[in-house]
Amino acid sequence: MKRIERAQGLRSGAMMAAWCILAAGEAILFPLSASGQAPGRNFSTDALQIELAKSNDIAMSPEFRVAIYENLIEEITKASGFQHVYRSGDRRANDAPDLLTLRTTVEDFKRGSEKKRQVTTVAGWTIIKTEVQLVAKNGNTLMDRRVEGKVRLFGGNLKATGDLARKVARLIRQAAEQRSTNPPGNQDESRGLNPE
Amino acid sequence: MPFLSSAPASLFGRQLGALSASTEETPTHATHVLGLEHFKRGAKGRLIIAGKELRFESGASVATISIQSIQDVFTGEENQQLVRGKTGLLVELAMPYESSRIVSLLASRKVDILTLEYRDTNGGIHGVIFTLPKGQAAALMRLLVGQGANAVVAPGATAKPHQRESQGVAWHEKN
């Protein structure tokens, strides 16, 4: 009888543990799914214009500047939920009422070597350090962040620009989400919505 | 190729007409790195200057860029590994005692990079990057400039930072 009771106790204990794990999992997942935006959801801000990356005094090959720009357009169009993503110089952006502008400035660039990466696995990284600013039409800076793009092992040097673009797209999404929950009229944008 | 659209892709909403043979330059083998919407990255094809257009053909798909709309052309060089990606990973796993590093050390080649910046009909800037066999980018750039494309840096020269802003005036080929 004692064995049976012990077995029943163990079974109920296991069930309790499983229940606790499930509940904990749900608690972790639920806030994510609640706060996460469904792909394609539109924010209160509909339009974003992406400017060509500036490199100022940094010695960087032009293909990297172009690759940063094109990757940013691709990633942000794919992930951010803006209705319109305009390219630099697009005249249609002038008519957008609540346009945001994304400015990227390269602050540091180190061109690595694909061969070195493959042979040594610890050297030859390509690193791009940038300052990314999201600016509203009235000139307020909504976001000002330092973002790094890297390629450490596999792939060509330009892959660092893809890594950078993915990170920037994630930040833009967060900033746009914050803006949609706190519309521009509710508070001072430059103070309240800067993620830093 | 299954990943490419079968219909011709036109960057300016124009479909290609019949080309006269006299205006078509010798095609250059090229690999699309990024920038063309209807082409997968890494798509191999041919770059052809046909009249006032630059065409990229890959399988049944065609993209065209009006040469007049090209704002800037750059050339560069890159050392590219021959064994890379999934194949590279498989080779690495298959070869014992880290001997795949010797393959990595030896199996590389230099390629030219051709970067174009052009404007669409709305004024939006687009960028396209191709890799070409070594020594062919400068020749293609010369042809593009000859057809009316703008270039800040002379063909064959490597673009330097600030050159774009400081020079101010676009470089044109002198006949």
β-strand number of chain A: 5
Termini gap of chain B: 41 Å
Uncertain residue ranges of chain B: 1-22, 161-175
Please tally the helical runs of chain A, counting DSSP H or I stretches of 4 or more residues. Answer: 5
Q: Kindly estimate the percentage of residues of chain A that lie in beta strands according to DSSP.
A: 15-25%
Oligomer: heterodimer
Strands of the biggest beta sheet of chain B: in what spatial order?
4-3-2-1-7-6-5
Helix content of chain B: 10-25%
Give average pLDDT of chain B, whole number: 76
Total number of helices of chain B: 4
Question: In what range is the share of β-strand residues of chain B?
Answer: 25-35%
The largest contact between protein chains, plus residue counts on each side, is: A-B, 32 and 37 residues
Radius of gyration of chain B: 18 Å
* Strand order, sheet with most strands of chain A: 2-1-3-4-5
Mean pLDDT value of chain A: 77
- Outline of chain A: flat
Can you describe what's shown?
- The complex is a heterodimer of chains A (196) and B (175).
- By secondary structure, chain A is of the alpha/beta class.
- Helices cover 44% and strands 21% of the residues of chain A.
- Chain A is built from 5 helices and 5 strands; from the N terminus they run αβαββαββαα.
- In chain A, strand 4 and strand 5 form a beta hairpin.
- Chain A starts with a helix and ends with a helix.
- In chain B, strand 3 and strand 4 form a beta hairpin.
- The longest helix of chain B is centred in the middle third of the chain and has 10 residues.
- Chain B has a 7-stranded antiparallel beta sheet with strand order 4-3-2-1-7-6-5.
- Chain B contains 4 helices and 7 strands; from the N terminus they run E-E-E-E-E-H-H-E-E-H-H.
- Chain B is elongated and about 55 Å long.
- Chain B is an alpha+beta fold and 175 residues long.
- The interface between A and B is medium-sized, with 32 and 37 residues.
